[in-house]
Amino acid sequence: MSHETNTSIELEIALLIRRLTSITTSRKFGTLDRSAYLLLGQIESHGSAGVKALAEEFRLDISTVSRQTSALEQKGYVYKMPDPEDGRAYFYQLTEEGRRMLLETRAQRTERIDELLKGWTEDERTRFGELLAKFNRTYLDD
Amino acid sequence: MSHETNTSIELEIALLIRRLTSITTSRKFGTLDRSAYLLLGQIESHGSAGVKALAEEFRLDISTVSRQTSALEQKGYVYKMPDPEDGRAYFYQLTEEGRRMLLETRAQRTERIDELLKGWTEDERTRFGELLAKFNRTYLDD
DNA sequence: GCAAAGTAGTTGTATAATACACTTAAATGT
DNA sequence: ACATTTAAGTGTATTATACAACTACTTTGC
């Protein structure tokens, strides 16, 4: 396999993360911050979950997710139900407000992508989406 | 243009930034941290530059870059030359050690990409590199 | 069936990356 | 020549994160 291709990908990835941080920090990129957006999206698509499952999904420390979910609960976007089978555990579920915020943010973020990619062909956008998805699901047991 | 495609790209980008943060934080991703790596790379490829130019390139606040370059200077990876035409300004240049670290980190990071993408076809990797480059250069005057 | 080990979650503390507001010194414009 | 602008640096705050210690519960091994 071509080493130059991978050197180029490596550089573009370093730039991408800088660029995405900059775009998403400017806070015009949706009402919810990134962690909140991902957590609510995960709960929406995979059903209610505890801190541990969420932390594993996003490869974050449990303590980090614990604080993030607390913040979401504080804001009324999720609520916490004790796990009937395990007295230590909880499930977080979306509130109506949480679902509303999720959809609103998703719409705002998609609109931003629309603007960014307006000069791209349909084929480029489709391919980009596919390759990003493939990359995100390419795991390495580290 | 397809809205679903963009919704999907939007989600994958949110996931990607989380995933990249996780990969690059584990610190097995090269000796230099991301900001140092990008700054040294920029100075290498575009020649010596001042804080302002670097901040613009990476869309960071000048204060942020000022601290980052100070840290690089501290570690002996760059040195600072006064701009002969402007008594307020400086140019940062790579030291030999800085260049060495840059190349070493680039090699380490590329190797990591090699591992991650080892199941991909040559065509997929080429296309991914191209689309990432295109995305990174797709600007929006925000 | 109980003690030891393990586990889910929380909280304390530390660090890194960032922005914004302010300061300083030099350059530029009128 | 004085006011305005600009390059860089510094003070301070915020956010996202990890690791370590702790609490309360569960599971396991004898």
From TrEMBL, chains A, B:
Q: Which Pfam families match?
A: MarR (PF01047)
Protein name as it appears in the record: MarR family transcriptional regulator
Family annotation (InterPro entries): HTH_MarR-typ, MarR/SlyA-like, Tscrpt_reg_MarR-type_CS, WH-like_DNA-bd_sf, WH_DNA-bd_sf
List the molecular function annotations (GO) for this entry. Answer: DNA binding; DNA-binding transcription factor activity
* Keyword flag 4Fe-4S: no
PROSITE patterns listed in its UniProt record: HTH_MARR_1, HTH_MARR_2
- Gene3D superfamilies tied to this protein: Winged helix-like DNA-binding domain superfamily/Winged helix DNA-binding domain
* Top-level taxon: Bacteria
Q: Which UniProt keywords apply?
A: DNA-binding, Transcription, Transcription regulation
| One BP term from GO | response to stress
Please list the residue ranges annotated as the HTH marR-type domain.
Answer: 6-137
